[in-house]
Amino acid sequence: MIIICQFIIYLSKAKKSNEELKAYQKAQKYNFISNIGKRDFSKNEKELERLNVELEELAKDVEKGFADLDAEISEEAIRIKKLLSRTRRLRSGVKSRLETITENVEYKFAVTTSDFQKLLVYFPDANIRRLEDIEEFHHKISSVFKGEIGLEKRKIEKELKDYNNLVSRYEKQLEELIKNPKLSKTVLSRHSELLRQLNYIQKENKAYVDLTKLKANKKDDNVRLVLIRQKQFTILANELNTAMKNINQFIYAEDYNAPVIDFSGNSYSFFTPDDTGTGIAYKGLVVFDLAVLKLTKLPIVVHDSIVLKQISDTAIEKILELYDNSEKQVIIALDKQNSYTEKANKILK
After folding, report:
1. How many other CB atoms are found less than 10 A from the CB of residue 92?
2. pLDDT (tens digit, 9 = 90+) per residue, 304-349?
3. What is the pLDDT of residues 26-40, one digit of tens each?
4. Would you say 286 and 272 are in contact if contact means Cβ atoms under 8 Å apart?
5. Which one, of 322, 328, 273, lies nearest residue 299 by Cα?
6. Which of 135, 147, 271, 340 has a CA-to-CA distance to 288 between 20 and 30 Å?
7. Which positions fall inside the DUF2326 domain (predicted)?
8. What ranges make up the beta strands (E) of the chain?
9. What's the angle, vertex CA 247, arms to CA 242 and CA 252, rounded to 5?
10. Is 298 in a helix, a strand, or coil?
């Protein structure tokens, strides 16, 4: 029973590995998976080695380039920092000027009242007309002064805006210089191309390795299946031969050899050693049927007269005993019933 279970398991595995191989080869047929031979695989292995070496050399060059780039970055950063510091100082000066001029714009001249009547109380001889002219002059001066200051303020505000933009630009340059050093486009392009080639060749070789593995799995599973089947046939042959020997011993004692069955590959042989003849052949067939009836769940056996009449009467008597003692159904046909032994006739009745 264990052998049968093992056979079923190995048969299932063999079918699975065979189906997997067929599916993989079908995918290769329609170019879903690369399909290369052993020669291309070996060639690819050498190319992969070359590409990896070139990638390593490129990485070293890039690393060296970064070192040189770091020195350049440091020098450039120092230069930009100097410009940034100088620009910030100039901007501070402009801010101070703007604050001062803003205060001047907001300054208001003292308002001179036009009502000089009270002044006449204390200075009856005061020239009111002259005072009014002076007040009008003050208003004109104030208007001109505010206009000039406003113009100057706008000029300083523009100057401050320019300095603010310049400071922002220097700060951004410094930040990008520190955070994002740029590699050569040629280096990056070559690195990308090497990776693309490497990936493509690796996929080709992986397809070859996978196919080789699937073929090996199929071969191993088939070998195991053949071995377990042969083992099963060996056990089956031993059981059948033992049963046939016992049955033959019961029928013929030591007079005749028992039939033997042997399985080999996809064929079998069934014979009686050192004995030939039509009667022996039919006897062997009956013995085999009785052995199968005993060892298996076969519920019934049928023997025609053409088989039984070739066997000796004494042997028929023993065979009929075996039929009679069997717990299974036996159907036979005889055409010379009265010629058998008394015991045989008794069994038949």
Report:
1. 11
2. 888 888 888 888 889 999 998 888 999 988 877 667 778 888 887 7
3. 998 888 888 999 999
4. no
5. 328
6. 340
7. 250-341
8. 260-264, 267-271, 300-303, 329-332
9. 120
10. coil
Are 58 and 187 within 8 A, CB to CB? yes
What does each C-alpha distance from 100 to 86, 95, 161, 171, 269 come to in angstroms?
A: 22, 9, 17, 28, 123
For residue 235, pLDDT over 70 is answered with yes
The domain spans of the chain are 41-183, 233-348
**Which residue did the predictor score with more confidence, 144 or 90?**
90
Predicted local confidence at residue 152, as pLDDT: 82
267-271 and 260-264 strand pairing: antiparallel
C-alpha–C-alpha distance, residues 273 and 252, integer Å: 15
**CA-CA distance, 121 to 343, in Å (whole number)?**
181
Q: Which residue has the tokens 């020098």?
A: 75
**Domain 233-348 is found in CATH 3.40.50.300:** yes
Q: Which of 309, 303, 270 is nearest to 286 (CA)?
A: 303
Distance from C-alpha of 196 to C-alpha of 71, rounded to nearest angstrom: 32
Q: Which residue has the higher pLDDT, 269 or 115?
A: 269
Q: Each residue of 195-222: pLDDT tens digit? A: 899 999 999 999 999 999 999 999 999 9
State if pTM tops 0.70: no
Neighbours of 210 (CB within 10 A): 14
pLDDT at 111 (0 to 100):
45
| Total count of residues recorded for the chain | 349
- Cβ contacts of 87 within 8 Å, gap of 6 or more: 163, 166, 167, 170
- Cα(346)–Cα(335) distance, rounded to whole angstroms? 16
CA distance 274 to 190: 83
Q: Where are the beta strands (DSSP E) in 202-342?
A: 260-264, 267-271, 300-303, 329-332
Position with higher pLDDT, 107 vs 236: 236
Contact 296, 267 (CB under 8 A): no
